[in-house]
Amino acid sequence: MAISDIAAYAQLSQADIDAFGAELDTIRRDIEASLGERDAAYIRRTIIFQRTLDVAARLLIAGSRSKVGWLAGAISLAYAKCVENMEIGHNVCHGQWDWMNDPEIHSTTWEWDMVGPSEQWRYSHNYRHHVFSNVLGVDDDLGFGILRMSRDQEWQPQHLVQPVRNFLLAMIFEWGIALHDFYSARDRADTDAAKNQVRRTLRAKIGRQLGKDYVVLPALSLHRWRRTLAANLAANLLRNLWAYVVIFCGHFPDGAEKFTPQTLQEETRPEWYLRQMLGAANFKAGPVLAFSSGNLCYQIEHHLFPDLPSNRLAEVSVRVRDLCDKYGVPYTSGPLTHQYLQTLRTIFKLALPDSGWSGIRTSCRSGIRQMRG
């Protein structure tokens, strides 16, 4: 059930929560004070690596005459897209590298390799999700509007098909994100002209993205255009699946708590920290898996400090875990497969009403009576 009193749930006094928040502020200040050329070099190397891999993969796809070569190229292209979306695009758009004052690597100028415009994503994700993370009825990312992820959300017959919805969302994840962000931008537009501009922005980005992946690049391959088209489709599918798994494992396994809007009333900064920590989950990863996930294996640390550079989250996690041990605060983490299977179990379980199959029969009878009436 959703948490209404975070202090009571964590069994901490207000003094403890304030001290907990002060120590987290110290961690932030320490990292910010130590940012420098080593960090700037990291993101620049990452961008060079991603772009080099992207070009090499496309050349391999177009030039290879074997199925093995095509498969290697498609997988390499998928990995390049994952790195661009997660370790670069997601983190740059969070403002993690704005301190460099580099106009190319800046949250206001970066446009990522997805159908959704980054400017629409920044508000929906950076503000609606990160500020109000896992608050029922406020955080639009809680189930993305199509999945029931808490028993506090009223069950409806449409939730019976949410395992199918979940599967389809994973397959077309970039489109789900694009529409999710579009609706958020459209709903806050206060004039018809502003709403129309939101639509034009999305349509223009979709046109550019589809044109690049499915028209221009296949055409450049001349008579081998089918190989390029198929590889682009495969790479986008693999990227969608991986991004979906990483995001869901950071927000929906057991231990990632949900909250009622009551928790936002007069919420202090230390209480916000505590809510972020209780509402997120990590998965265990070595350096390669961490890089491949955009360092979102450290989802707890990312939610605590969303604008700190991703390459520093591993060291931050050591201090955060020690702090959790000190104050007795839960620190949710586990193997990637375990975290995803827990998430999948929740999706299937909450597809049914809380009363189980009897609740379905009752809903069916009620619907039949309404139709007859």
TrEMBL record:
One of its GO terms (molecular function) is oxidoreductase activity, acting on paired donors, with oxidation of a pair of donors resulting in the reduction of molecular oxygen to two molecules of water. It comes from the Bacteria. GO terms for biological process: lipid biosynthetic process. One of its GO terms (cellular component) is membrane. Pfam families: FA_desaturase (PF00487). This is Acyl-CoA desaturase. Residues 69-333 form the Fatty acid desaturase domain.
